[in-house]
Amino acid sequence: MSVISFSDREGCDAPFMLLPLVRYRRGPLRVVGLADFGLADQNAPVLAAGMPAPPTPLAEAVGAYLAGLDGVDLVDMPKLHSHIGERNNPLFSQPDTISESNTLRLELAAGGDTSAWRRKSIYKKARSKFRRLTEEGVRLVEAATPAERLALFRTLAEQRNDRFSQLGREDSLTRQERLNFYECLAALETSECPFTVLALERGDEIVATLVLLKNDLQATAVLVSIGDARWHGYSPGMVLFAKAIEWASENGVRWFSFGTGQQDYKQRFGGQPQETRRLLMPLNSRGRLFLRAREAHRTAQELLQIAIGKNGLRT
Predict the structure, then answer these.
(1) How far apart are CA 37 and CA 39, in angstroms?
(2) 3-class SS at 260?
(3) Model pTM?
(4) Do residue 80 and residue 118 come from a single domain?
(5) Which residue would you say has higher pLDDT here, 116 or 104?
(6) Side-chain half-sphere exposure of 277, counting CA atoms within 13 A
(7) pLDDT tens by residue, 58-71
(8) What is the pLDDT of residue 55?
(9) CB-neighbour burial class of residue 177 (10 A; exposed 0-12, middle 13-18, buried 19+)
C-alpha cells in the first residue's frame, strides 16, 4: 500500500489531493487499485479542504500518473461516484471508466423545501409503526461514547450473523479484518467520529440497529440488523431507516445515501439514482488481453441468459 500526494511543486507541505493505492495480484495479473479492501460503498481520493484549484486539472494529473505506473498490468478502481461532497471526483471522469451500477441518494433539503421527502407515505407508515413500538416500551437511542458504539455494533454483528446463518449465506462480518475495521472506527476517541450508531431498544434488548458513516454533508447507511422475530410485525428496519433519515436532517446533513444495492425498500424512501463507475485502465498488452477476455465472458453470460429465457430452461 502507498499514498500518493499531488501538489503544485515538489516538497509542498499542502497537497491538493492524497490518493491511497494498493498493489496486488489477480492470478498472473498485476493490479493497482484503491485501498478500500472491499469495505467501501464509494471510492474516492482525499481532497484538501479550502485549497485553491491546482494549476493542472486534477483529472488530467491523475490520469497521467496512473498511465505511467511501472510493473502494473491493469488499474482497477470500482465504486466511483461523480462527486466528493460538492467537488468533482477526478477518478470518475477518466476516459477508461465504465458504468457499473447505481446507488440511491436522498437530498434532504431539495429546492429549499426541507420537508418534501417527509410527505411520502412511507414516513407516515413509519411514524405509525414507531408509535406502536413506543407503546411496547421501545425507544430510539444514539450511541454517545466509544463504549456504547462498540456494544451496539457487536450486537448488530451477532444479529446479522444469526440472520445470514438462517438464510444459508456467508456473512462478510465474520472475516476478522472487516470486524476489526468497524471496531476501530467505533472506538475512535474523537468528537468528529464518522461512525454513528442508532438503535431501537427495549430495556436491555436491541430490537434493531443501524450504522451510518457521516460527515457534514452526507450520511451513508452501511450496516443494519433486526433482532428477535417477534418484532418483525412492527417493521423495525423500516422505522429505523426513517428515523435515521430524520436524524440526519435534524443534524444538518444534506444527503442521505442508502449504500450499495437497489432493494425495493430503499426506493420507497425516495431519492435519486447516482451512477457508479469503474475505472479499468490497461497499461500493457497483458492488461488489454484481460479486458478482452472479461468482455467476452460477460457477453457469453448475457447470451446464455437470453437463451435460457427464450427456451424456458433452468440454470
Answers:
(1) 6
(2) coil
(3) 0.83
(4) no
(5) 104
(6) 17
(7) 889 899 999 999 99
(8) 62
(9) exposed
Asked if the structure places residue 88 within a domain, the reply is yes
Q: What percent of the chain has pLDDT over 70?
A: 93
Which ranges of 168-277 would DSSP assign to H, the alpha helix?
176-186, 236-250, 264-268
pLDDT digits (tens, 9 = 90+) for 233-246: 999 999 999 999 99
Cβ partners under 8 Å of residue 37, min gap 6? 22, 177, 181
Q: Band of the pLDDT at 114, cuts 50, 70, 90?
A: low
Cα–Cα distance measured from residue 163 to residue 101, given in angstroms and rounded to the nearest whole number:
26
Q: Which residues of 107-137 are buried (b: 16+ CB within 10 A; e: fewer)?
A: ebeeeeeeeebbeeebbeebeebbeebeeee
8 and 87, same domain (yes or no): yes
State whether 23 and 115 are in the same domain: no
Helix (H) or strand (E) holding 311: helix 285-311
Helices assigned H by DSSP within 58-188? 58-67, 121-135, 146-167, 176-186
Distance CA 197, CA 210 (A): 6
Residue 294 sits in which domain range? 2-103+275-311
Count of CA atoms in the C-beta half-sphere (13 A) of 25? 3
Backbone angles phi, psi at 213, to 5 degrees: -105, 125
- Using CA atoms, how far residue 231 sits from 130, 157, 168, in Å, is 12, 18, 22
State how far the Cα of 67 lies from the Cα of 161, in Å rounded to an integer. 42
pLDDT of residue 73: 97
Q: In total, how many domains does the chain have?
A: 2
Residues 176, 286 within the same domain:
no
CA 267 to chain centre: 16
Whether 287 is covered by a domain: the verdict is: yes
